[in-house]
Amino acid sequence: MKFIFSWQRFLAITLKEFTQMKRDRLTFAMIIGIPLIQLLLFGFAINMDPKKMPTVMVMADESVLTRQLIVGFQNSKYFKILDKNKNQKEADELLRRGDVQFVFYFPPDFTTKLIRGDKPELLVEADATDPAATSSALTAVSEIVQLFSKNLAGNLSYLSVPELPINLILHSKYNPDRITSYNIVPGLLGVVLTMTMVVITSLAITRERERGTMESLLAMPVYPLEVILGKLVPYIVVGYIQVILIVLAACFVFNVPLKGSLILLFLSCLPFIAANLAVGLTFSALARNQLQAMQLSFFFFLPSILLSGFMFPFQGMPEWAQVLGSALPLTHFLMIVRGIMLKGNGFFDILPSIVAIFLFLIIVMMIGMKYYRQTLD
């Protein structure tokens, strides 16, 4: 049989596909939305050289010279000075909780020793749990101090000023060797849980709907909350198996230190696992088929991994991106797991992050229950 290409049949099939694409609005929105989100996030939110990182100054000596040095740090754009009146204990607490990235300590006799040429110490402590967020800034500190020293030698030429009159001490806390795996491996705990929990559960209700078992489930005398909780519990067990495997690999394969409580780490995983499962079930209630459920899962996973601080320094993102990232549970869970493993944080240190995850869980559960009721009609 001789094949004859027909433009009429070709155009008819093409028109049919465009019509089908138009009817599947969710898929069409994903085709347009995902590239736009990637463009915006990679173009504006992602920054490998973070600037304006939160910094506090412990000022035991305020003088013209110390203020000049602080102005130099501010002009570098790397440091956003939040306070100059904190004492050493308060500053250490802020650094441990992750509220600030850097702490500068000016001793009481800093100016006096500087003029005498006795080389006063200037201690700069950095939260180095994410080495990429601090390396450029610490290099800038050294360059600023050298520039300040040259200007000082010119202004005080009548004194015996050494070439570098300041004993600069740079202390990278919590990860002094700046080992990347110390930051990445604990973060993978949250990324793996987000990816698997959301994807697996997003297929739960849609699979039952496609197989026809959803009608039997809806005919049972059960409430939406009972169905949702019943579907969550088995996957919570699966989530904890993943947690155990990743923690064992982190400690014994990658030699990541575990300075905090292992029990606290396991307990803090529960609300995070539940939050991701609730997201997956909500997506499965919203989607009409498994393909749409997968698309919604990817739509949630992409901003989570880019805006949480896993791949790129969170403090280096613009404020609007940090606001969006703070609404995602992965952002807070990374603070929890890195704080427990690398800093030895306790319950009250991670409590604000736990509360944020619980709020997210409650909101998503309410949305999921609302749309689950709509399936009863």
Could you describe the 3D structure shown?
This protein has a 5-stranded mixed β-sheet, with helices on both faces. The protein folds into 2 domains: 53-173, abc type-2 transporter like domain (abc type-2 transporter like fold), CATH 3.40.1710; 180-374, no CATH class. The protein has helices at residues 7-23, 25-45, 64-75, 88-97, 110-116, 131-155, 180-202, 204-211, 214-219, 224-252, 262-286, 290-307, 319-326, 329-343, 347-374, and strands at 53-59, 79-83, 102-106, 121-127, 167-173. The chain has 377 residues and is an alpha/beta fold.
Brief descriptors of the model:
single chain, 377 residues, alpha/beta, abc type-2 transporter like fold, 2 domains, five-stranded mixed β-sheet, 15 helices, 5 strands
Number of helices: 15
Count of beta strands? 5
Q: Could you estimate the helical fraction of the residues in percent? A: 55-70%
Radius of gyration: 27 Å
The tally of structural domains comes to 2
**Inertia-based shape:** elongated
Along the chain, the helix and strand elements come as HHEHEHEHEHEHHHHHHHHH
Q: Spans of 5+ residues with little confidence (pLDDT < 50)?
A: 157-162
Could you give the distance between the termini? 52 Å
Structural class: alpha/beta
Q: Mind summarizing the main beta sheet?
A: 5 strands, mixed
Mean pLDDT across all amino acids:
83
The order of strands across the largest sheet is: 2-1-3-4-5
Q: Approximately how much beta-strand content do the residues carry?
A: 5-15%
